[in-house]
């Protein structure tokens, strides 16, 4: 019997220690990862989806490194309030109140919309989609187990006493100019709280009111707090401690510190629940005043992946855009930037087409080894996708190498980056706006007629056909270095 393959070394930035650390799994050969998923009260915007592209690349890299991946992504369908702290309405309750649909219908609709975006971005399915409402009994049991030593009850619900655990808020710390550490957060005041940072474990339904989602508990009828959900689902599906917890950088200030506090209370130690906490940075838009602004849904208008698709862009152009920046760097969105990412993806696809049908060949072609090593060094160094993309491009450009070996290398690299280089057709990346009035069968016929006219040097016919195509909204790109013949 062959001995199991030794996993590759992998170094990841741990937000808890603010250091790049070697990944050392809790269970040898396994990687257990929990990703904070969406609150399904509205469509996700492309900034939200950056977090799942990042988590997907992390999972693909762990696989590529030789670990058996167990990945959990939760769906929050209850408990998340409109405020940053413990004030405001439940986001799902508010969405349902503004429509004729039930809260369950709202959650189902936006969950499927999120899953559509996941598929479009070539994000792999996790081992578990954990739905918050499926775990409410377990949340009540979890809260009961920590209530006596770590919680207190107010008229509005059960609250966690943050002074009852050591180093509360260490994850959210920032460093002041004099080098001292401080913890910051956006916690709203609630009358009766012992500490400003204390947070709700269970929220009672106010007297005389009712919610569509509410359950009986020892603290009255109501619903769980948002932070409780991830602690419970992480413990149930992955066990404490597990390896990696991911989320957007906005979770680093309140949500994840509160999770850690609950995990400490449950485990009876300083354990944070996960050994490594990882956060992707914001996607920002250029504001009218010229400055960048965090993408959010608060204005009521936001960029959805479907808008990019409706404007004719393949969704993997956005994935490419995400990969061009390190996950811990801010990424600015612009339409010019998206167009440039699409062009770069086209170039990769053209180069990959040349080896797509190659056989197995010499998988050990020594001339490709430098590209393999550069790619590995980039991905093993905290998922440095910008450098990995450059290594991929240089490997595709390599001359006088075995075609089969090159194909195998490109397939391995693309397994990590997820750009579909060996499956996409060139025509998939043509810009096709949704409102373009063009019948592609008719287009193909006219384009072919024009090619024949040009070959016969019948430029009058060629120009006439070009004008007809222009009237249909099609730009013919003669001499295009990318070899794309037309775009809408």
Q: What does it look like?
A:
This protein is α/β, with parallel strands linked by helices and 488 residues long. It has 14 helices and 18 strands. α5 packs across α6 and α8 crosses α9 (335-353). The termini are far apart. Residues 174-186 have low confidence and may be disordered.
The proportion of strand residues reads 15-25%
Structural class, judged by helices and strands? alpha/beta
Number of contiguous helices: 14
Measured distance between first and last alpha carbons:
57 Å
- Mean of the pLDDT scores? 89
Give the overall silhouette: globular
Q: Give Rg in angstroms.
A: 26 Å
**How many runs of DSSP E, i.e. beta strands?**
18
Give helix % range.
Answer: 25-40%
Arrangement of strands in the largest sheet: 5-4-3-12-13
Q: Which residues form runs of ≥5 with pLDDT under 50?
A: 174-186
Major beta-sheet overview: 5 strands, parallel
Which tags fit this structure?
single chain, 488 residues, alpha/beta, five-stranded parallel beta sheet, four-stranded antiparallel beta sheet, 14 helices, 18 strands, 16% strand, globular
Note the topology.
Elements: E1 11-14, E2 19-22, E3 30-35, H1 46-65, E4 68-75, H2 91-97, H3 103-120, E5 128-131, H4 136-150, E6 151-154, E7 157-160, E8 173-175, E9 181-183, E10 199-204, E11 222-224, H5 226-238, E12 242-248, H6 255-267, E13 274-280, E14 283-286, E15 292-294, H7 305-310, H8 315-323, E16 331-333, H9 335-353, H10 369-380, H11 385-397, H12 403-417, H13 440-455, H14 459-471, E17 475-476, E18 486-487
Parallel strand pairs: 3-4, 3-12, 4-5, 12-13, 14-16
Antiparallel strand pairs: 1-2, 6-7, 7-10, 8-9, 10-11, 14-15, 17-18
Helix pairs in contact: 1-8, 1-12, 2-3, 5-6, 8-9, 10-11, 11-12, 13-14
């Amino acid at each position: 019997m062959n001995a199991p393959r030794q996993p590759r070394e992998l170094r990841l930035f741990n937000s808890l220690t603010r250091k790049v650390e070697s990944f050392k799994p809790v269970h040898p050969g396994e990687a257990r990862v929990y990703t904070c998923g969406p609150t399904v009260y509205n469509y996700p915007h492309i900034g939200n989806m950056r977090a799942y592209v990042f988590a997907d690349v992390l999972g693909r890299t762990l696989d590529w490194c030789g670990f058996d991946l167990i990945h959990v992504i939760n769906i929050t369908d209850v408990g998340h309030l409109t405020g940053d702290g413990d004030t405001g309405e439940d986001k799902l309750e508010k969405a349902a109140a503004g429509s004729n649909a039930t809260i369950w219908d709202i959650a189902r609709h936006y969950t499927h919309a999120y899953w559509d975006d996941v598929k479009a971005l070539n994000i792999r399915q996790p081992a578990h989609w954990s739905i918050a409402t499926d775990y409410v009994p377990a949340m009540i049991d979890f809260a009961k187990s920590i209530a006596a030593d770590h919680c207190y009850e107010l008229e509005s619900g059960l609250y966690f006493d943050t002074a009852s655990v050591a180093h509360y808020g260490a994850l959210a710390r920032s460093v002041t100019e004099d080098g001292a550490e401080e913890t910051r957060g956006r916690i709203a005041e609630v009358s009766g709280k012992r500490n400003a940072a204390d947070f709700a474990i269970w929220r009672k339904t106010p007297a005389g009111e009712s919610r569509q989602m509410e359950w009986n508990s020892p603290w009255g009828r109501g619903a769980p707090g948002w932070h409780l959900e991830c602690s419970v689902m992480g413990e149930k599906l992955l066990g404490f401690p597990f390896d990696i917890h991911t989320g957007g950088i906005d979770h680093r200030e309140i949500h994840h510190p509160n999770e850690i506090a609950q995990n400490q209370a449950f485990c009876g130690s300083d354990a944070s629940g996960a050994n490594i906490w990882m956060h992707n940075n914001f996607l920002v838009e250029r504001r009218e005043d010229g400055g960048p602004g965090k993408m959010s849904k608060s204005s009521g208008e936001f960029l959805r992946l479907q808008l990019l698709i409706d404007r004719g862009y393949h969704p993997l152009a956005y994935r490419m855009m995400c990969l061009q920046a390190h996950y811990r760097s801010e990424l600015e969105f612009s339409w010019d930037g998206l167009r440039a990412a699409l062009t770069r993806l086209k170039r990769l696809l053209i180069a990959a087409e040349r080896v797509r049908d190659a056989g197995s060949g010499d998988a050990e072609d020594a001339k490709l080894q430098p590209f393999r090593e550069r790619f590995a060094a980039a991905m093993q160094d905290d998922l440095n996708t910008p450098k990995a993309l450059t290594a991929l491009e240089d490997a595709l450009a390599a001359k006088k190498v075995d075609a089969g070996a090159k194909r195998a290398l490109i397939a391995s690299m693309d397994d990590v980056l997820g750009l579909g280089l060996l499956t996409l057709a060139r025509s998939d990346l043509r810009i096709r706006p949704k409102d373009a009035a063009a019948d592609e069968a008719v287009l193909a016929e006219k384009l072919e007629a024009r090619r024949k006219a040009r070959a016969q040097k019948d430029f009058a016919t060629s120009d006439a056909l070009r004008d007809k195509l222009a009237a249909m909204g099609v730009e013919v790109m003669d001499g295009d270095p990318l070899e794309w013949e037309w775009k809408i």
